[in-house]
Amino acid sequence: MRREEGFTLLELSIVLLVVGLLLQVVLQGGNVVEEARIKRLAMDVEAVGAAARVYVERYHALPGDDPLAGRRWPESRSGDGDGTLGEGERAGFWEHLRRAGLFIRRGGGLEIGFGVLGLPGLALCFTDATPEAGRLYDLEFDDGEAGSGRVRSGGGMVCASL
What we know:
Oligomer: single chain
Number of strands: 4
């Protein structure tokens, strides 16, 4: 009797099962990373929004736009007090919050804007969010439409109204 070389059907089935399980673990790991990004987006929106609201209550002006910031903190630049954040006032937003002791962390990829992507008022934008993270964030916290609601995507960023 001659013996054939190769794998049995049982051995091939076991190999395919193991490969399938490994693939499932890898794909779930990717989902965990995206979920962590979404949670970070949500926490940043809440933290920056709360800090900005406290600043407005305390100093009666938007951080960055505060016309009296230079008096409070002589090394700080005052804003024009017009109720919006102009081009030169965006960096002042973070500085005023930091000097007021309201928000210390400003990681890469966080930008502040006024009227960005058609959002009314102040918006926090994430320039390092993946399109998928933005889509999932919009689905979880808004209407799921990139061009409407309080979360909008476009131009390589995701923005949320504060």
